[in-house]
Specification:
two-stranded antiparallel sheet; globular; mainly alpha; homodimer
């Protein structure tokens, strides 16, 4: 169960409740990076193509942690570094990301670009791709003792 | 194909491209009302539980129209009124809304409330529910000559 974040709860509509947590321009891109791009460190998240600023990234990481979507552990190699990872609730947003990606593939095909490697992975279909992504995260979690 | 709206295009990632259009606190709630709640007039959209302000509603309707997600026709009963309706690209966001609703049902069950009538409709499963919603919109479009 995720807790409330600092946005006011606008209604008890399931869609409004989800958007109170992830309905902004950046949160789902941070979740994308943790879920699909193999990123786990602040520096990696800061380097994404969309050019998120450091203060927005810090803010969103804190809000997503407050809402129970991600958590953080010290990096085993350096106590100056941290490792960010998604909780079960965060990882379960994969279905929302896949639905958004499918919509863009149909309705924004002129604007999007999917790298060959990612396209090959997604060619297996959204369900198989989603399961593969979650298996990879489970392997990472095992390695880092999450 | 939807056109670019006034947000800067941040990257060619399919998820970022979708979020450039609908990644804010309000756009998907306006789409929800047009898609699932049988709303078609400005006054109806203004009366939703979340208390959207008139200036935000006007702004989002214009942006969604500019992005090719909705369109508007004069009301057949009064030339002072307008009827808003989703385009094919707008209606195709139903899969995103269903994924968000499913996520909330699992991870925000303490905060959400789904009215009995809606719950009964959704009990048929997301695919059957989605098809029913689109059939109802098609009947409305036929009636109003959209």
């Amino acid at each position: 169960m995720v807790s409330r974040n600092e946005h006011a709860i606008r209604s008890s509509c399931p869609l409004a409740c989800a958007l109170d947590i992830i309905g902004d321009h950046w949160s789902l891109l941070v979740i994308r990076d943790l879920l699909l791009m193999g990123k786990h460190e602040y520096k990696e998240l800061l380097e994404s193509d969309e050019g998120i600023s450091s203060n927005i990234l810090s803010d969103r990481l804190r809000k997503l942690q407050d809402s129970g979507l991600l958590d953080v552990i010290p990096h085993p190699e350096s106590n100056k570094r941290k490792l960010y990872f998604l909780t079960a609730a965060g990882k379960d947003l994969i279905h929302v990301l896949l639905a958004l990606g499918r919509w863009s593939a149909v309705h924004r095909s002129d604007a999007i670009f999917v790298p060959e490697e990612m396209r090959a992975r997604m060619a297996k279909g959204p369900e198989a791709f989603g399961k593969e992504v979650l298996r990879e995260l489970a392997a990472w979690e095992k390695e880092y003792g999450v």
